[in-house]
Design brief:
224 residues; mainly alpha; 7 helices
Amino acid sequence: MTQTKSNERLKALLCMAMLTALAVAADIFLRIPGIGGFLTYEPKDVILTIGAFIFGPVAGLIMSLIVCLIEMITVSTTGLIGLLMNFLASGVFVGISAIIYRRKMTISRAIVGLIAGSVSMTVIMLLWNYIMTPIFMGVPREAVLEMFLPLLVPFNLLKAALNSALILFLYKGVVTALRKSRLIPERESNDGEKKRSNTILIVSISAVLVVTLVLVMLIFAGIL
């Protein structure tokens, strides 16, 4: 039994490494440059979310961090600020989508999860653009607010909607291929480990939200 579990974990790590490599490739070679050098579209979140649907939200978060780190040292021109923004966007979208989906793995839960992930990512990115864009672009925060409706809201919602559609289209085929290649088991066990990983990620996302709101309040108070 121990040997079997060890083999399953090794296969899972191999599969996660493959998905991470694919996400990096999508990030580098399928990147569409955006406005001002900081709004770009790349389909890495499609692959990362599929990975999180299969292996859990914590695995998705780890893969997201690795991809964002590689992005920072290869194609990104925004440095640590870009790393932070990219990881927040991917982490929130991937994490929340996977948490909801894996509580009851059905197509309806996948759709609900992706909608919740899309809305959450859009809200978080609006707040962090309000915090960080004046630092990155040297513009007043009033100018950032003016970009919300004509630019930032539609960009993030369209990006999330496109990613969600691709995830729903590709997920079943990817899972079927991985099962046929015996990289993932036919059926997944529903044990306490899933609940623990979900709790860890929920606490992490809650902490990000608290920090975000505190920073926004400090800005409105004139302290930052």
